[in-house]
Every structure is written in structure tokens, then in C-alpha cells.
Amino acid sequence: MRILLLGSGGREHAMAWKMAQSSMLEELFIAPGNAGTRQHGKNVSLNPTNFDEVKAFVLENNINMVVVGPEEPLVKGIHDFFLADPEIKGIPVIGPGKIGAQLEGSKDFAKQFMMRHNIPTAKYATFTKDTLEAGYSFLAGMKPPYVLKADGLAAGKGVLILDNLEDAQKELKSMLADAKFGDASSRVVIEQFLSGIELSVFVLTDGDSYKVLPEAKDYKRIGEKDTGLNTGGMGAVSPVPFADATFKDKIQNQIIIPTIKGLKADGIPYKGFIFFGLINVKGEPYVIEYNCRMGDPETEVVMPRLRSDLLDLFEGVATNTLSERDIQYMDQCATTVMMVSGGYPEDYEKGKQIFGLNTVTDSIVFHAGTSADGPTVKSAGGRVLAVTSYGKDLESALKRSYDSAAKIEFDKAYYRKDIGFDVV
Ligand code: AMP
Ligand code: GLY
After folding, report:
1. 243-282 pLDDT per residue, tens
2. 313: in domain
3. Do 90 and 130 reside in the same domain of the chain?
4. What residues contact 114, with CB distance under 8 A and at least 6 apart?
5. Based on the domain organization, do 129 and 93 belong to the same domain?
6. Residue 328 CA to chain centroid, in angstroms?
7. What is the distance between the alpha carbons of residues 391 and 176, in angstroms, rounded to a whole number?
């Protein structure tokens, strides 16, 4: 297979690493990729949201499958773009069409979908500029903390959790009337606060059948003990110890199956990953959010635990034969620790030379935000490297990740020393 993988983060490096192990792979291109992905294929400087550029590359290079890493091209309709064009309609795209991607692209769409299909989630109501006053009253009738969500994509910043009513009402106004998140906050979902511990569950589906991947837990806050600002993710572990067989059965029966059947019942074709952001409320799983792609940094622990050939699974998605494929994962645990640029998630500097990458022998270093300058690797983002390790338990995997991270240096590097603190 000749594959074009779109994206440039740690998720894409982990997927490239996994695909490169497949005997089905003939050639892998990553657009735009990073200094890590070039170890597994050819980086090409394409913009994943410039669909005409993607099409031209696909035709010139005889690509026979496009794998989409991030949500943006999906929400913008890359899958529909392929299907609508006779020259490329036969080339499978792994990732849902525009409507399916609305599960992530619109919180209100996702909420309505869950209500329609009886999928457990927090109670909610949606407001616009025209119903701002009703929004104030709705908030006044709720108990704190107040959860406000911009309806559209807001680069992971669109969710606000506020402890007092005045602040919540002020923020609601700023989102709806003053376009705090631009168009993304022209509608706002207000929902009941759920208290519990979160986990991420992933399935791959061809629209009819599905395979469940290893579950993971990510750590979103910049500071230890989950304090400080939200980030793209500071580390992850898999498996998640509290997700026992009973809890996983509930996830399957109350959430995964109704979602797959619901998509079908609504006439929404869906070929790709569904990421279920879940919360465990006293032993019952609830959906906090859907994403139409894999998680990052969760992919950096999920791919290493996947024993099956990823391209075989993707071929099953493309040809509607996923039910005939086998998915197996390793018993070994995997952990990842994210090394970030000092200052992230606020202002930070890029272009710092990274030292010590070749001294790491006990971990896989997935690149999240790096660029190559000849043989030199430099930081090129807030999240720079995901240091992934295996272990017979989470503790031993974490120890390896931390020992390896200690061998890597760049100016102002920072990482949390407590990944897994709440589950080991
Ligand atoms: P989201 O972008 O929807 O995943 O929200 C970001 C984060 O806000 C989640 O990972 C949760 O930690 C938190 N969150 C979102 N919705 C709720 C809720 N209803 N109750 C409690 N926490 C929430
Ligand atoms: N780790 C959360 C996400 O990928 O959205």
C-alpha cells in the first residue's frame, strides 16, 4: 500500500511508526510530518487542509489510502471532497465525512445525537446570542460549578468551568455576544458538571462493525497533581486500572454500541476512529465528548500496545470487512511523558536544539513538535517529545519513561514528574 498520512504531531509519529512495521506497506508519506516521522517515511510539505494540494499529490504519487490524523481536515470535509471527485473517489480516506466529524465539530450536534440515542451524558441546554437572557436564567437554576462549552472547534480552549454564577454569566455573554472564541462560540452548550475520573476509549469502525483499541488516560493540566492551565496533554498511560471488565462492558453496551448503531440509524456513514472522552461517575460511564480522530498523547501509548497490523485494520475499514479482521493487543503496559517547551501552554520559544535523543535505549521517543535541520533536531512547538515506554506494570513503564526523559535535553525543557499519580 502507498499511504499518505496527514498531520505533524506525536499522534502521527506513533501512527507512522506502527504502519512502518506492516508488511503491507510499500511507501509512506507524511504531510507535513516532523523530524521523527522522517524515520518511517518521506515527509512532504503539504497543507492537510488544502485539499487541491492533497489531491495533486495523491494522483502524482499513486497513493492508495489517505489516513487523516487531526480533526481539522475532517471537519472541513476532506472525506467528502474525495468522494465528490471522480479522479480520487476510489481512494479510501480513513476518517469520517463532514457530518460524522460534527460529533467533534459541534458540541450541540454531539449532545443532540446522544439524547436521540440514549447515550449517557451530562444534561444540557444550548444558547445563542438571541437567547442570552434565557441562558442567564438557566445558569441561575443550576448548581456550581458551571460548565460552558463553545459549540465549535476552539483548539481545545473552548470549555470553561466556573465556580460562581456571576463569572459564568459574564463568560456566557463574552462567548455569545462578544465572540470570545469567534464563530465557534456563536452557540454555547451549558451542561451539568460531572464529578469523577476521566478516561479515553477508542474504536475503529467501517460504519457497520467496530474494533475497540486499548483504553488510555491522559493528563491535561500543565502542573503536577492536575493543577494549572489546560494543555494538549502532558502524558498518558494504558491500560487504565479502574477500567475493569464490568466497567468496560458498560462502556461497550451503553456507549459504543448505541453510537455505532445511532450513526447508522441517522444515515451518517462513518469510516475511521471514534474517540470517546468518558468520565466514571460512581461506576457509571458518561460521555464528556466525542472526537473524530485518535487522541494525542493517547495514541503514543495505544499504538505501542497494538499487536495487530494497523494497515490490515485500515484495509478492513476501507473495504467494509473490518468484522473479518482480528485485533489483538499486548498485556504489557505503556506510558508516555510529554516534554514541553518552558512557558507552554502560554508563550514559549521554539528552535531549541535537542540533545541526547540517540542515548535513549529503553523508550520510544515520539516527536510531537520538532523540525529537522540536517542531522540536528530542534523544538518546533509547545509539546516537543513524547517519551513512551513499556513495562510489566505502569510503575515500571513510568520509571523507564522518566529515566529516558532525563537523558534528553533542550533549553527550558519541562515535564510533569507525576504522570499516572492517581492510578498507580
Ligand atoms: P472537552 O473539550 O469537552 O473534553 O472538555 C474539556 C475538559 O473539561 C474535559 O476533559 C473535562 O475535564 C472537563 N469537562 C467537560 N465537560 C465536563 C462536565 N460536564 N463535567 C465535568 N467536567 C467536564
Ligand atoms: N488527549 C485529548 C485529545 O486528543 O483531545
Report:
1. 999 999 999 999 999 999 999 999 999 999 999 999 999 9
2. no
3. no
4. 120, 121, 287
5. no
6. 21
7. 48
Q: What is the mean pLDDT of the chain?
A: 96
N- to C-terminal Cα separation, the chain: 40
Atom of ligand 2 nearest to the CA of 293: 4
Is the same domain home to 88 and 12?
Answer: yes
Ligand 2 in reach of 104 Cβ (< 6 A): no
Task: Pick 423 or 222 by higher pLDDT.
Answer: 222
395 phi, psi to nearest 5 deg? -60, -45
Tell how far the Cα of 270 is from the centroid of ligand 1, in angstroms.
24
Helix (H) or strand (E) holding 199, with range, is strand 197-205
Q: Work out how many domains the chain is built from and give that number.
A: 2
CATH label of the domain that carries residue 178: 3.30.1490.20
> Scanning the structure block, which residue is given the C-alpha cell 511507501?
27
Quote the domain boundaries for residue 148. 123-191
Phi/psi of residue 418, nearest 5 degrees:
-125, 25
Point out the ligand 1 atom lying closest to the alpha carbon of residue 193: 20
148 and 93 assigned to the same domain: no
At 291, the amino acid letter reads N
Position 109 in a domain: no
Ligand 1, atom 12, residue with closest C-alpha: 198
Burial 106-133 (b: 16+ CB within 10 A, else e): bbbbbbebbeebebbbbebbbbebebbe
Question: Does the reported pTM lie above 0.90?
Answer: yes
Which ligand ends up closest to the CA of 149? 1
Give ligand 1 pocket residues (Cβ under 6 A).
122, 147, 149, 159, 191, 193-194, 198, 277, 288-289
- Of the candidates 18, 16, 382, 396, the one whose C-alpha atom is nearest the C-alpha of residue 234 is 382
Return the C-alpha cell found at 269: 456513514
Report yes or no on 71 lying in a domain: yes
Which tens digit of pLDDT belongs to each residue from 335-361? 999 999 999 999 999 999 999 999 999
Contact between residue 38 and residue 25 where contact means Cβ atoms under 8 Å apart: no
Closest-lying ligand to the alpha carbon of 294? 2
Query: Nearest-5° angle of CA 414, CA 417, CA 421?
Result: 145
CB 294 within 8 A of CB 273: yes
Question: Does residue 248 lie within any of the structural domains?
Answer: no
Using alpha carbons, select from 58, 1, 54 the residue that is nearest to residue 25. Answer: 1
